[in-house]
Specification:
219 residues; mainly alpha; Arc Repressor Mutant, subunit A; Tetracycline Repressor, domain 2; 2 domains; 10 helices
Length: 219
């Protein structure tokens, strides 16, 4: 086989793997891990069952790869939250509230996606069978978001612009003020997400409440 003929074979294999992963994700979301068979995955991806097993050793291996991919996607949300804080800290209470409103809106836009909630529900549903995957997802997504906010709030605590005995607790309060009203509803009704105007209102309210509680002049 020449070098020129090898590339299409590699390309076909990669496309089949992508098709298997995509169709398996859809099936797992709709039917759960236990309710999905490798025969169904093969049929949905228009490949043979042998091809599925060539790409993935078993259903658990396929599921693990899908969840790992979901978990890695959280990195993009974390990066956008970091960027929303800006390169330099805000200089006063009013600027801080404005900055935090932008951070909260970025947080909401990153999390409030129908697919994100569907995938999160899948991980929660299978947490008992795959506790390591659930724990990894928690560490790399919700917990990582709070740790990121805490790191970004630390300069404000050090300068005295916010007063917090535990900056991580303050970060958790900010995260839940931002996400909880919309997230609780979306976990049960992922197809009915808040509008852009509602997200902005949630963001502004969260920032205002946080600064009222933790801003230096509020003490």
């Amino acid at each position: 086989m020449t070098e020129g003929t090898a590339e299409p074979v590699i390309g076909r294999s990669a496309r089949k793997r992508q098709a298997i992963t995509a169709e398996a994700t859809t099936l797992f979301l709709r039917q759960g891990f236990r309710g999905t068979s490798m025969d169904e995955v093969a049929a949905a991806a228009a490949v043979s069952k042998q091809t599925v097993y060539k790409q993935f050793s078993d259903k658990e291996g396929l599921f693990r790869e899908i969840v790992a991919g979901i978990t890695r996607n959280a990195d993009a949300i974390i990066a956008s939250i970091t960027a929303a804080f800006g390169a330099t800290p805000a200089g006063n209470r009013e600027e801080l509230e404005t900055r935090l409103t932008g951070v909260a809106r970025t947080y909401l836009d990153g999390v409030l996606q129908t697919r994100v909630f569907s995938l999160r529900r899948l991980i929660i549903a299978e947490a008992e069978q795959f506790p390591d995957l659930a724990a990894d997802y928690y560490r790399q997504a919700p917990a990582a978001g709070i740790e990121t906010v805490a790191a970004q709030l630390e300069p404000y605590r050090a300068s005295g612009l916010i007063i917090a005995d535990d900056v991580r607790v303050a970060a958790a309060h900010f995260a839940y003020l931002t996400l909880s009203p919309a997230q609780d509803r979306a976990m049960f009704i992922p197809s009915d997400l808040p509008s852009a105007a509602d997200r902005q209102r949630f963001a502004a309210t969260a920032a205002s409440a946080f600064v009222a509680a933790y801003g230096a002049s509020a003490r």
